Every structure is written in C-alpha cells, then in structure tokens.
Amino acid sequence: MAEKLLYEQDGHVVTLTFNMPETRNALTDHDLCDAIVEAMGRINADQTVRCAIVTGAGKAFSSGGNLKHMKEKHGTFAGDAVSVKDGYRKGIQRVARAMWECEVPLIAAVNGPSYGAGCDTTCLCDIRIASTAATFAENFVNVGLISGDGGAWLLPRQVGLSRAAEMTFTADPVDAETALAWGLVSRVVEPGELLPEARRLAARIARNPPRQLRMAKRLLREGLNTRLDTILELAAAYQGACHQTEDHGEAVDALLEKRQPRFSGR
C-alpha cells in the first residue's frame, strides 16, 4: 500500500506530499491525519530541517472532507454528535494544532483545488505559492457544515474579515489570480514551475541559521495574539540567546569578510 504522506528530505528542506490522489487528498482520513501529526513532530525534533514544503499528489492539493465518508457516516463522521465532535478533535483538529506549532517555516505549494479543510490547511502554512490551476474555497456551508478545523480563526488573518466572510458565506471558489490580489498567496506560477519555485524559495530560507529561523517564526506567531510589550520582552530574551550562538558570530564575520556564511546550528 502506498504511503498516504510522502516525507522527503533534500539537505535542509523537507517536502511533504499528501499522497491520496484517489480521494483528491481528502484530509479526513485518520491515517493521513496521524501521518501529518507525526511528520510535524519529526520536523520539530530534527535540527537539520530549516524549511518544509507541503503539496498534494495528483490534480488537487486537497478536497478537504471525504464526501463519501460523510454520506456513509464513516470515520470522523460516524456516530452521534458527541462521537463526531471527538472525531474532529482526534483527527483534523490535531492536524491543525500540529501544523500551527511546526517550528520551521512552512511553504504551501498549492497545485490544484484546495477546498474546505484543504483551504484552511494552506492557511496553516507561513507562505503560499499557487499554480495557475489552483483554486481556493471555504465551502463548508455548501455541504451543510461549518469550518471544524480553525478556518474561522485562520482565514481572516490571511485575507481580512470582509473577504473571509465573503468566501465563507458564499462558498464560492477563488481562482489563483484572485487569491494573489487578496493576499492569500504570495505568487502564482505555471503548474510545471510550482515545485521548482517552492524549492528555490525554501533554499533561500534554509541558507539562514536554523535556531534563529525557528525563533523568528515563533515571534511572528506570538505577534498575532499578544501585545507589543509582550513581544518586545520575548524578542529581548531571544536576542540575548542569539547573541551567544556561534552562528551569530559566523554571520557577522561572513558579512565583514564579504563571503558566504557556513551555519552549524550552534
């Protein structure tokens, strides 16, 4: 049986591929959810990883929930209201928590349709690059549901409340060019250029010192929900730690000597 999540590392960059094209990479499969959570823990524990790319196999990034499973009341959707609540908490909500707590920069390389939980999963990443074939839809109401994976918290932080409300209340798909204009993605490229472009961006990120990258990401995350004075205190503590690292000394020396730095993670 093929792995439902492919984990590939090239140097300091990991590429994660949702590998269930037969379901358009539906994210309500328990095995896939478990694999994503495990992969996030593996990345966090591996100090050689400095950046990760998330993409989908086949024509879709992710279709979100599996409609056949919804119809059959299978898996996450089985049982009474309490059972379904527990299914969400043990499934897609674990994915949301794990991806949000990923310590390294995450790039979503959105290769095709990204609907429902798929759309929200792209919002869990730090940077989104879209293929011209990509579409985004917060289409929960269209199937008689609401976002169960944090989309109501995530999407307004990417596109603003008015556009998030429009996407949520209409359930209309948004094409790649509109996503670019709305700030949902950073850039749009032709399908054949999507992964090469994501890898080039990941390489530009991964050339930087690993511990400082992780601290910089944590500051951005904390800055979404806390006061400026709190961020300043946290930044001061992080800065104190950074000044003691070998990588800081190497970075300063490299700039003064007009050469490329060689970071060790120490």
UniProtKB/TrEMBL annotation:
PANTHER family xrefs: EG:BACN32G11.4 PROTEIN (PTHR43459:SF1), ENOYL-COA HYDRATASE (PTHR43459)
Protein origin, superkingdom: Bacteria
One Pfam family recorded for the sequence: ECH_1
Entries under InterPro entries matching the protein: ClpP/crotonase-like_dom_sf, Enoyl-CoA_hydra/iso, Enoyl-CoA_hydra_C
SUPFAM superfamilies registered for this protein in UniProt: ClpP/crotonase
GO MF term set: catalytic activity
Protein family (similarity comment): Belongs to the enoyl-CoA hydratase/isomerase family.
Source taxonomy: Bacteria, Pseudomonadati, Pseudomonadota, Alphaproteobacteria, Rhodobacterales
NCBIfam families with a match to the protein in the record: PRK09245.1 (NF006699)
Protein name per the record: Crotonase/enoyl-CoA hydratase family protein
